[in-house]
Q: What sequence folds into this?
């Protein structure tokens, strides 16, 4: 874990290791006991394409599977 301090203008500088690993753009989420920084990809659509590159089903097939699962779970 690292530490960072706000400067006089309220800016926070993340350690170099963090920037190199996660990038330079973040979404700030306020929690009840603090904040969370969530990295934002430079091209979010490219990130999604990479994440699901090995999925061989179409979107329609995935939706149908999700519907079927929800119906089964609800107790047809």
A:
């Amino acid at each position: 874990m690292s530490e960072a301090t706000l400067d006089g203008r309220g800016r926070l500088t993340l350690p170099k290791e963090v920037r190199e690993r996660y990038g330079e753009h973040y979404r700030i989420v306020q929690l009840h006991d603090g904040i969370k920084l969530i990295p934002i990809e430079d091209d979010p659509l490219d990130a999604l394409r990479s994440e699901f590159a090995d999925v061989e089903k179409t979107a329609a097939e995935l939706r149908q599977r999700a519907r079927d699962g929800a119906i089964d779970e609800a107790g047809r």
